[in-house]
Design goal:
about 35% helix; two-stranded antiparallel ribbon; 5 helices; globular
Length: about 230
């Protein structure tokens, strides 16, 4: 990892996917590289590779009578990484118009009572987050508008702003599948033939470009905020 000035801002890039060769992991690595190029020190958190268990435990269950409760050592370590970050970028596939269990469990266990919420001034107050959500739907699928709205409500309003973040942006990246898919008016999933050759290269070049634009805009907004 490149050496940066000790005063450089830190970005926590969280990738939630079980395969290292997935488009999600690829997008996370490229996001990390873009942030480093913008001067950030990057902490890349691959939840699956690091063996994070998304299941809530008794030790990490909120104690509403004690907001100073010490949680499990695993969660305390993740809390420190989150506290050390000025910005967070979460990269994940959209499952059922939401985040996968791996990311949801990380939020459930780490963004916990007494830490992320439950205080007049949350410990995460002022941080900023970009949610890069990869979706198999095509950009012209009518479901995309609703998907964007659901993700913004759940992720920005229900999580980030509730925990004191100053900015939350949902970057919905459609056309993530090689085989185009969309839902028709009767609710049937229509899956087309896999794109190949030059068409495939163009699709993923456009995908990478949109992901890069989200990250670069996020980094530029961070620089202004700083």
């Amino acid at each position: 990892m490149p050496q940066h000035d000790s005063h450089a801002r830190t970005a926590l890039v969280v990738v939630a996917h079980h395969r290292a060769d997935s488009l999600t992991a690829h997008t996370a690595r490229r996001a990390a590289a873009r942030l480093e190029a913008a001067g950030y020190r990057v902490d890349l958190l691959d939840l699956h590779a690091e063996g994070f268990d998304p299941r809530m435990t008794v030790a990490d269950q909120p104690d509403w009578g004690d907001r100073e409760k010490r949680y499990s050592d695993e969660v305390q370590a993740h809390m420190r990484r989150l506290l050390d970050a000025d910005a967070v970028v979460a990269v994940f596939p959209v499952y059922w118009q939401s985040v996968p269990a791996l990311l949801k469990g990380w939020i459930d266990r780490v963004w916990n009572y007494g830490f992320a919420y439950g205080r007049s001034k949350p410990r995460l107050a002022g941080k900023r987050i970009l949610w890069l959500a990869l979706a198999g739907a095509t950009s012209d699928d009518p479901v995309v508008e609703g998907m964007q709205a659901v993700l913004e409500t759940n992720l920005s309003e229900g999580i980030a702003y509730y925990c004191g973040f100053s900015r939350s942006t949902v970057g919905l990246l459609t056309d993530a599948e090689e085989r185009p898919q969309r839902v028709d008016a009767e609710g049937n999933l229509l899956v087309g033939d896999a794109v190949t050759g030059a068409e495939r290269e163009a699709q993923y070049a456009a995908f990478d470009r949109r992901a890069r634009e989200f990250v670069e805009k996020f980094a530029a907004e961070e620089a202004v905020a700083a």
